[in-house]
Design a protein that fits this description.
InterPro entries: ATP_F1_dsu/esu_C_sf (IPR036794), ATP_synth_F1_dsu/esu (IPR001469), ATP_synth_F1_dsu/esu_N (IPR020546), ATP_synth_F1_esu_C (IPR020547), ATPsynth_dsu/esu_N (IPR036771). With 135 residues, the chain is an alpha+beta fold. The chain has two helices and eight strands. The structure holds adenosine-5'-triphosphate (ATP).
């Protein structure tokens, strides 16, 4: 691997979403956005629902992550996420339906409403729609 590259792996329980050498990335760290260049100091952090921004050979692209963990060590960045999709993989109609379902559930205030669960589903849907619209 060249000196100014780092290997980025994004995996979910279902599949390997991404495994390539990249120049730079920005991750949605639990305590704020984290920019990672090759030879970054070792770290482990949890991730928020958000968008990873990746630069590779002058190209820029984005990957939605539904939260999880990121480890950086020896110019290797490993992201373990419950779910992740490259922007072109996002099914916009499905995300719209998920957004509506979550909004309706929150508005209906049923006595058995799990508000945190509904809000997290809403955040995932809104972030997927944002990622897809920015691609
Ligand atoms: P839904 O209610 O539509 O299932 P969700 O936010 O609950 O949405 P997740 O639990 O985050 O879904 O993801 C479950 C699986 O479905 C993952 O493999 C994820 O990549 C995939 N997935 C969910 N929503 C989309 C979407 N809009 N486009 C593409 N893949 C999706």
């Amino acid at each position: 691997m060249s000196e100014n590259k780092q290997r980025l792996e994004i995996v979910t329980p279902q599949r390997k979403v991404f495994s390539e050498e990249v120049d730079f990335l920005v991750a949605p760290g639990a305590e704020g956005e984290l920019g990672i260049l090759p030879n970054h100091a070792a770290l482990i952090t949890s991730l928020n629902i958000g968008i990873m921004r990746i630069e590779q050979d002058g190209k820029k692209f984005k990957v939605f992550v539904s939260g999880g963990f990121m480890e950086v060590r020896n110019s290797r960045v490993t992201v373990l996420a419950t779910a992740a999709e490259r922007t072109e993989e996002i099914d916009v109609a499905r995300a719209e339906a998920a957004r509506k379902r979550a909004e309706d559930r929150i508005a209906a205030k049923a006595p058995d409403l799990d508000l945190i669960r509904a809000e997290l589903a809403l955040q995932r849907a809104l972030m997927r729609l944002k990622a897809a619209s920015e691609k």
